[in-house]
Amino acid sequence: MVESRDDKEKWNDFYRYFKSTWIDGNFPPPLWNIFGILQQPRYHQILINRTNNALEGYNSKLNKRFNAVSFSGSPSMRDFVTVIRDDSARHNSKYNQIKEGRVNKPDRPGPNIPTLHPNFEA
Q1: Which of 9, 25, 54, 77 fits a disulfide with 21 by CB distance 3.0 to 4.6 angstroms?
Q2: What is the 3-state secondary structure (H, E, C) of the chain?
Q3: How far apart, in whole angstroms, are the C-alpha atoms of residue 62 and residue 60?
Q4: Are 38 and 46 in contact (CB under 8 A)?
């Protein structure tokens, strides 16, 4: 594949953005880079919930609810408020049932704490 001058300029723009934001800017590597994290004290407290899988799952369910009430592709304000209100009520009801002891908390696995292979050398 041959890169055009425009492609190279786009890559240069991306590199400048990445460097200014994720290296030198508001989000330096210690916030997002997990290389060598196992050598740090209490690494497991740092590594927990570093992905957004739960949020992506919630967004998927919410999108399905919006699609169920809106056939035009985007919900009306009334449909939007209805879906959000119903979702909030559903979560509030689950929370109260758990709090009152009427149902058990969901059985979810604990955090996944990665380990290195015994023969790994840093």
Answers
A1: 25
A2: CCCCHHHHHHHHHHHHHHHHHHHCCCCCHHHHCCCCHHHCCCHHHHHCCCCCHHHHHHHHHHHHHHHHHCCCCCCCHHHHHHHHHHHHHHHHHHHHHHHCCCCCCCCCCCCCCCCCCCCCCC
A3: 5
A4: no
- Domain encompassing residue 62: 51-106
Distance CA 74, CA 33 (A): 37
Buried b (16+ CB within 10 A) or exposed e, 57-92: eeeeeeeebbeeeeeeeebeeebeeebeeeeeeeee
Q: Are residues 35 and 70 in the same domain?
A: no
Whether residue 58 is found in the same domain as residue 46: no
Q: What does the pLDDT read at residue 122?
A: 45
Look at the pTM and tell me if it is higher than 0.70. no
In terms of Cβ atoms closer than 10 Å to its own Cβ (0-12, 13-18, 19+), residue 114 is exposed
